[in-house]
Design goal:
With 84 residues, the chain is an alpha+beta fold. It has a two-stranded parallel ribbon. The longest helix has 16 residues.
C-alpha cells in the first residue's frame, strides 16, 4: 500500500485524532518534533517519532496512554510519510 504524503502539521493532527479516539486517551495530546529520517526505514517510513511529547488530560495517564500512542504511531507510520 502506498503511503499518503503529508506535512508535519497534518501528521500531528492525524496522530492526535487517532489517539483521542481511544477511550482512555480522549484528552491526551501529542506534540512534536517529528523528524525526517536520513534513510527510509525497512518498513518504508520516512519519519521518526523518537522525541514525541505526550500530555495527558485528567482522564488519562502516561502509563495507559503511552502504549496506546506507540500503537497509533505504528499504524500511522504504515499509512503516511512526511513531505520533504
Amino acid at each position: 500500500m502506498d503511503r499518503q504524503v503529508v506535512s508535519v502539521t497534518k501528521l500531528l493532527e492525524i496522530l492526535n485524532a487517532r489517539l483521542q479516539a481511544l477511550k482512555d486517551c480522549k484528552e491526551c495530546k501529542v506534540r512534536g518534533p517529528i523528524l525526517l529520517r536520513r534513510e527510509i526505514a525497512a518498513d518504508g517510513s520516512n519519519w521518526t517519532p523518537v522525541d514525541l511529547k505526550l500530555s495527558c488530560g485528567p482522564g488519562g495517564s502516561h502509563k495507559t496512554c503511552l502504549p496506546s500512542l506507540q500503537r497509533v504511531v505504528a499504524q500511522v507510520a504504515s499509512q503516511y510519510n512526511l513531505a520533504p
